[in-house]
Q: What sequence folds into this?
């Protein structure tokens, strides 16, 4: 047995022991399946950091697979707390565990998600997004077509970003622990807009770039998981990167997240903006391109 396989086996044994003490057989089965499945498929995908390798292209998702159904279980407060603690410990010990971070974001984000939903409902475009519930996938976002767009358009810039880093529109995790269907969609939309925001801000998917974007997301969404990613991720930077973060990126995130942005980032129908000139879109939304460190 390899070291990585042994580590994974021991992780699952500890998880099973933890679940058997806290949860019913139904929840044990669900949570064991969740962490074992996602850790095997997304184990190398980070939540705040260093340039991730593109995972294998998943099968085409649909809304019914991504959002909770009427038969979705309801977590009690102790169960929610247990998942939060387990996910937080897992994420802090291994930041590449995107499955643990995703679970933590879902069980701790109810208040922030409700506020984000209200922000969207207060804006005509946000209302339209909630009505249409667009899903970012290979059908709605055809990278091949976007690559053929005119240079300088948002769609072309997004396609170039995705192709350059080997990313795919369907890379983002499904939502599993948000029982409210509307809030589950808000969480899903938040995740699926991440690479749109990279394109708008000009931030690369590196450790400093991801942390800078998380600070912007924090000021825009108030999601606890964004706060965790932004603060814990900062501890993993070297001295020069920390200097750039505190002198350049955080002030930039504050400006864009709370002062200069004209539209909340969740209230943009990005799929309908692909033909727009990128600079014009940034101007219309009040998005300032992220600063570049002088050492770069």
A:
């Amino acid at each position: 047995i390899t070291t990585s396989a042994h580590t994974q086996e021991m992780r699952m044994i500890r998880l099973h022991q933890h679940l058997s003490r806290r949860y019913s057989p139904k929840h044990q089965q669900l949570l064991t399946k969740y962490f074992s499945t996602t850790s095997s498929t997304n184990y190398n995908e980070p939540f705040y950091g260093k340039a991730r390798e593109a995972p294998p292209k998943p099968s085409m998702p649909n809304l019914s697979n991504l959002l909770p159904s009427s038969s979705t279980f309801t977590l009690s407060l102790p169960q929610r707390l247990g998942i939060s603690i387990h996910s937080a410990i897992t994420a802090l010990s291994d930041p590449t565990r995107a499955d643990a971070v995703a679970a933590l974001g879902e069980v701790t984000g109810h208040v922030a998600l409700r506020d984000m939903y209200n922000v969207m409902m207060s804006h005509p475009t946000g209302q339209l997004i909630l009505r249409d519930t667009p899903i970012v996938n290979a059908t709605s976002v055809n990278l091949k077509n976007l690559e053929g767009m005119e240079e300088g358009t948002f769609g072309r810039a997004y396609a170039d970003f995705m192709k350059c880093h080997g990313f795919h529109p369907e890379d983002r995790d499904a939502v599993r622990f948000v029982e409210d269907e509307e809030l589950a969609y808000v969480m899903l939309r938040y995740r699926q807009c991440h690479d749109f925001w990279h394109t708008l801000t000009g931030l690369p998917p590196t450790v400093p770039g991801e942390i800078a974007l998380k600070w912007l997301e924090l000021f825009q969404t108030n999601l606890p998981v964004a706060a965790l990613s932004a603060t814990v991720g900062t501890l993993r930077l070297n001295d020069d990167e920390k200097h750039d973060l505190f002198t350049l990126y955080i002030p930039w995130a504050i400006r864009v997240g709370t002062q200069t942005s004209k539209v909340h980032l969740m209230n943009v129908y990005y799929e309908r903006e692909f033909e727009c000139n990128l600079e014009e879109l940034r101007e219309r939304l009040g998005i300032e391109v992220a600063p570049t460190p002088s050492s770069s």
Remarks:
- The radius of gyration is 19 Å.
